[in-house]
Amino acid sequence: MGDMMHREIDEELPGTERMPVLFIGHGSPLNIILNNSYTDSLVRLGKSLPKPRAILVVSAHWLTNGTYVTCNEKPRLIYDFYGFPRELYGVKYSSPGSPDIARLTCATVRKVQVKCSNDWGLDHASWAVLKHMYPKADIPVFEMSLDYSFNEWHPKMIQHHYDLASELGELRKKGVLIIGSGNIVHNLGMLDFRNIDAKPFDWAVEFDEKVKYNLLSGNHRDLIDYRNMGRTAHFAVPTLEHYLPMIYALALQKKDDHLEFVHEGFQYGSVSMRSFRIG
Which positions are tagged coiled coil (predicted)? Predict the structure, then answer.
């Protein structure tokens, strides 16, 4: 998109008060149909926020070669999970897309080329959360993918995502609520599938507490270099895709943005549901 089109869309969108940024631990798809302390916290959070013009979700479940945003006018719902109760596959969430703001996002980011996609829709990293926050599905939603071509062996991988995310800050002043949706601790190999309230592993608690400390102290560097937090990091973050959405939220924190936790806890012993609000 050229600068002229960027200006045209930008001028059509009046400025707003700077919107908050969220990181939400989305956990199991079962949370879509459950009522628990976690889902209650999402309901309260949705009611506490200024109404967004649109919502951008950075999804742990959309991994691509390059960075994309969904530009669909009517994004399809993606049931990207298997073996769950039939009830889950009947849940609907018919929010509109936001193609104009998605294209504005493409123009806003200069570090890399962000491209439009009409192939993806809303996966459960988005709608499993928004179903509780905004049950009327009346707010336009679009997703951003995670460029996974910068793989775990690339020394600048997490820094690359942090730098990219920092360019999204202008969207906050256009009424866009940006949500990183993943999990700080996410080890599927050690889940206790039979018990959602299973006692969390010691390593999971230890890593989650270290992250909490660094979040409260504003220590982004140690969160980017999370492997330096010790052996617990190996178990807590066996793969990066659920950790990276938190990095996007952090990169958007301004010096005067207060960070507060909207939920703390674990599910299945090895998934941290820690969620926070910035601003």
Answer: none
What is the set of domains in the chain, with CATH numbers? 3-278 (3.40.830.10)
From residue 28, how far is each of 16, 38, 249 by CA, in Å? Answer: 34, 11, 21
CA gyration radius, the chain: 18
Both tokens assigned to 195: 């018990």
| Residue 85 DSSP class | -
Alpha carbons 161 and 105: distance in angstroms, whole number = 15
Q: Would you say 262 and 45 are in contact if contact means Cβ atoms under 8 Å apart?
A: yes
| CB-CB contact of 69 with 102 (8 Å) | yes
**CB-neighbour burial class of residue 238 (10 A; exposed 0-12, middle 13-18, buried 19+):** middle
Cβ atoms 21, 279 nearer than 8 A: yes
Contact (Cβ atoms closer than 8 angstroms) between residue 251 and residue 109 = no
Query: Token digits for 103?
Result: 């294209």
Per-residue pLDDT of the chain (279 residues; tens, 9 = 90+): 445 445 545 666 778 899 999 999 999 999 999 999 999 999 999 999 999 999 999 999 999 999 999 999 999 999 999 889 999 999 999 999 999 999 999 999 998 999 999 999 999 999 999 999 999 999 999 999 999 987 666 656 899 999 999 999 999 999 999 999 999 999 999 999 899 999 999 999 999 999 999 999 999 999 999 999 999 999 999 999 999 999 999 999 999 999 999 999 999 999 999 999 999
